[in-house]
Specification:
This protein folds into 2 domains: 74 residues, HPr-like (Histidine-containing Protein, Chain: A), CATH 3.30.1340.10; 112 residues, Enzyme I, Chain A, domain 2 (Orthogonal Bundle), CATH 1.10.274.10. Helices cover 54% and strands 6% of the residues. It contains 9 helices and 3 strands.
Length: 251
């Protein structure tokens, strides 16, 4: 389970006062239904048998709503690729090529149309390679962390206003990660322990990424790891913007 479907479950569970425990019978891992990171950490794959325990004053209403969601809505959290007509007539190949009796491997297009441009190799962002600013006082670092989180949250809200489809799903997943209690607590613990705000963000990304990626190397695990890294990088970016704005205001 990666961040997008996990964020849907987290949003639903947080609408109730009851406690939700997600137990993956295959992996033996348990997670809090009200935490995106905790759900990702259960290493839930397609076909896994899972048990959800609900306890609290509104547990019956929560059970009914979650049951309806799991059965009818959860399978459609991610947009499916467009249907392809297998019976459609295949494009012929040029006669000059056909005369060579080539072995043809037909593929399916996942996007209509064509495009051209310059191929550019993009490497993933290595947070550990970033040049981080020196550590300031705990109070200053706490303030910068709070301002950075707020700035990033507002940026996500603005993007969601103009998003649609898959874009909206990704942004909502990132917003759920940003609001996750475990994520924020780990950031704060790092700052209170004397780390700079930026160093705490890098450490938090490293702390939660293995939980999403070392249990298995499946696509959903890699996707979750990328979501966590992306949120961490954007939080650092927002933090630097907040720091720059703060310095300008003091001049």
């Amino acid at each position: 389970m990666h961040a997008r479907p996990a964020s849907h479950i987290e949003t639903l569970c947080n609408g109730f006062r009851s406690r939700f425990e997600w137990h993956n019978s295959r992996s033996g891992l348990r997670g809090d239904g009200k935490s995106v990171l905790s759900l990702i950490g259960t290493d839930t794959l397609l076909g896994d048998e899972c048990r959800i325990t609900i306890e609290g004053e509104d547990e019956q209403a929560a059970f009914e709503r979650l049951s309806q969601f799991i059965q009818h809505e959860f399978p459609h959290c991610d947009e499916a690729l467009p249907q392809v007509d297998d019976q459609a007539e295949q494009e012929p190949i040029p006669q000059s090529l056909a005369n060579l009796n080539p072995t043809l491997v037909r593929a399916r297009s996942v996007n209509q149309g064509t495009a051209n441009g310059k191929l550019v190799h993009l490497a993933r962002v290595d947070l550990n390679a970033l040049t981080l600013p020196p550590t300031q006082s705990v109070e200053q670092e706490q303030q910068q962390l709070a301002e950075g989180l707020t700035r990033f949250g507002k940026a996500l809200d603005l993007q969601l206003m103009g998003g649609n489809g898959t874009t909206t799903a990704v942004l909502e997943a990132h917003r759920s990660l940003l609001r996750d209690g475990a994520f924020r607590q780990h950031l704060l613990d790092g700052v209170l322990a004397g780390e700079s705000c930026a160093a705490a963000i890098v450490a938090t990304s490293a702390h939660f990424s293995p939980a999403a990626g070392t249990v298995c190397q499946c696509l959903s695990a890699r996707s979750a790891k990328l979501d966590i890294r992306d949120v961490s990088f954007q939080t650092i970016t927002a933090k630097f913007m907040a720091s720059s704005a703060s310095r300008r205001s003091r001049r």
